[in-house]
Amino acid sequence: MSNNLHIARLDRSGAGRWFAILATMAILMGVLSFLGLGSAVAYATDTGSGTPRPLAQAMATTGHEPFSLVTANEAGEVRFPIAEFADGVAHFYTFMANGLPIEFFVIHTPDNVIRCAYDACDICYPAKLGYRQDGSVMVCNNCGNRFATQQIGIARGGCNPAPLAARIVGDQLVIATQDLTAGLSYFP
Predict the structure, then answer these.
(1) How far apart are CA 63 and CA 65, in angstroms?
(2) Among 115, 122, 156, 165, which residue's CB has the most CB atoms within a 10 Å radius?
């Protein structure tokens, strides 16, 4: 009988309560995972389309909040409605390739062209700081050089944002996964 009393005392002392709480949480997490509800994912809403997208869980560059995560369709393409970029603001995204994040941005420039670039360049990419928009220019967060948005995808090399190939199909901006993964070297 003294063994039973000893166990009861452990339960009242708090250790048993914590064990029961942890066991209950583990069971609940298992049930939620089984139902497909077990992972908590933060979502961002793209301003142009209002499309909710999960935030990336891994980042290739630092000094910012996680970017919206994009995925490819069965055809190996990432697609965006063109209307998403009508605001003229650089939209930053993350694409995961073999567990590695690739960051890029898309912007509709004043000359009425939608342009894409990696959030990196040939020179400053090791600093992993990427770019930010300042009006009609993109600014390197590492060296401070400024680049007119109308030159994105045209000017290459140096500290220019590394161009990312994309095409317009109907009312969609289409980026092929092989073009995205070609930029893996910028995000070691």
Answers:
(1) 7
(2) 115
- pLDDT of 19-52, one tens digit each? 444 444 445 444 333 433 333 344 454 444 456 7
CB contact at 8 A, 161 and 152: yes
Instruction: Give, to the nearest 10 degrees, the angle between helix 2-13 and helix 15-34.
Output: 70
Q: Which residues contact 106 (CB under 8 A, 6 or more apart)?
A: 80, 84, 85, 90, 91, 93, 114, 115, 116, 166, 173
Residue type, 59: M
14, 16, 152 from 26: Cα distances, Å: 18, 15, 50
Q: Which H or E element spans position 178?
A: helix 177-181
Residue written as tokens 């590695």? 100
pTM of the shown model: 0.73
The string of pLDDT tens digits covering residues 102-127 is 999 999 999 999 999 999 999 999 99
Residue reference for tokens 């697609």: 79
